[in-house]
Design brief:
Oligomer: single chain
Strand content: 25-35%
Structural class: alpha+beta
Distance between the termini: 11 Å
Largest sheet: 6 strands, antiparallel
Number of strands: 11
Order of helices and strands: HHHEEHEEEEHEEHEEEH
Radius of gyration: 23 Å
Low-confidence stretches: 250-254
């Protein structure tokens, strides 16, 4: 019965080809998602530049800055709040939002003031509203060009994550965004269970993460992952497609061959 070995070979060949297809699909999806996040961070850079040039922000004017923030907040759905910190690390102004817990102290502004560039803080949870967010800080310069304070953007990750949930991926696929320490910032499946946790006990350095890999995720599902680097984060976008997709397709082809 030479047909049986031939069918078996064909089934194995079909599985290998389907795995290669999954790898390509995952890599393209992760690259697309990373490009979206980089564009979003770029839009925040533009907004920070515009706000930093406003006279009320440069002068650290509490009322003028607060009024400006109130008008700016609706322009970014993922933006929870805007905060202005002075050189003494004390809050100068913020967009009024009684549903959010106030940021205690301005120690987070020190890196922006010292480095003179954008700094993204680790994942945080608002104790009052119960939402996950990251704080993105920008240095503020006065009219003479000297750094005099910092702008803080509180970004709701759940709003950004909702965009990934509409990607045309096979059932059981997952999109995950992690920071440089392996902490999960956003996840399209069971986000309440996994956001804030690390992907493994020993997170890898960013340069050690390959473009694609087959792994068992934190939920115990074996998937083919495509990984892309978000340079503005620095974050990693991983798109995982279940290996069962490849197995199911190859089984169908093998059955047809038999």
């Amino acid at each position: 019965f030479p047909q049986i070995p031939a069918a078996t070979w064909w089934g194995a060949r079909a599985f290998e080809e389907r795995v290669a297809d999954l790898r390509d699909e995952a890599v393209v999806a992760s690259t697309t998602t990373a490009a979206y996040l980089n564009r979003y961070l770029g839009s925040l850079d533009v907004m920070a530049t515009a706000l930093g040039l406003h006279p009320a922000v440069q002068a650290l004017d509490p009322k003028g800055a607060a009024d400006l923030f109130e008008r700016t907040l609706p322009q970014q759905p993922a933006l929870l709040n805007l905060v202005l910190i002075g050189p003494n690390q004390q809050e100068v102004a913020r967009a009024a939002d009684p549903g959010l817990q106030a940021i205690t102290g301005g120690e987070w502004a020190a890196p922006e003031i010292e480095a003179g560039r954008r700094v993204i803080m680790p994942l945080q949870v608002d104790g009052k509203a119960g939402v996950n967010y990251v704080l993105i800080g920008y240095p503020v310069r006065n009219a003479e060009g000297a750094i005099s304070g910092a702008l803080g953007f509180r970004i709701r990750l759940r709003t950004i994550q909702s965009v990934f949930e509409h990607l045309p991926l096979p059932e059981g696929s997952v999109v995950t965004v992690t920071d440089q320490n392996g902490v999960i910032l956003a996840r399209t499946v069971d986000s309440d269970l996994y956001v804030g946790k690390t992907t493994s006990e020993q997170p890898r350095e960013l340069e050690e993460i390959p473009t694609s890999e087959e792994l068992t995720g934190v939920d115990g599902v074996r998937r083919m992952y495509g990984n892309a680097f978000v340079s503005g984060g620095p974050w990693v976008v991983s798109v995982g497609i279940p290996m069962d997709v490849a197995l199911g397709k190859s089984w169908w082809l093998w059955g047809s061959s038999v």
